Amino acid sequence: MWWRTIWIIAAYWLLSAHFLRYDQLYLAGVFALAPLGILIKHSLIMRLLQAVLFVSVFAVWGVTVIDAIQIRIAHGTPWIRLAVIMGAVMLFTLGAIFCFNGILRLRRQKSYWGTSSIH
């Protein structure tokens, strides 16, 4: 389970670094601290964190890649490498979204076996 947590933290820190690059310190701080929500063992918090990452794939990374590619094309500079890197970032974030499912499944199994009367 530890590698899933690291993957999620890295995805949130990538978002934080993105906002830090554009001097949006408040959003950078929020995204840097958001993975602390994993410590709260409530499935609703986990689903909220998962939804934030899902929205960020399109609202942050998708918009950023389109804008950056348009700028590169307008300047006549190569843009394919940028598209590949940003595509990898988007896939990485989608992978982090699936990591939440594994954490939630493991927590359900632990709570199920922890409350069982059969030992």
Mean pLDDT: 92
Shape: elongated
Query: Would you list the SSEs in sequence order as H and E?
Result: HHHH
Going by helix content, strand content and strand pairing, the class is: mainly alpha
Low confidence ranges = none
Number of helical regions: 4
DSSP, total strands: 0
Radius of gyration: 18 Å
Biggest sheet: strands, sense, closure? none
Total number of distinct structural domains: 1
**Strand fraction:** under 5%
Proportion in helices: over 70%
Distance between the termini: 24 Å
Index terms:
single chain, about 120 residues, mainly alpha, 4 helices, elongated
Written description of the protein model:
82% of the residues lie in helices and 0% in strands. It is mostly helical and 119 residues long. The chain has one domain (2-111). Helix 1 crosses helix 4 (80-114). It is elongated and about 60 Å long.
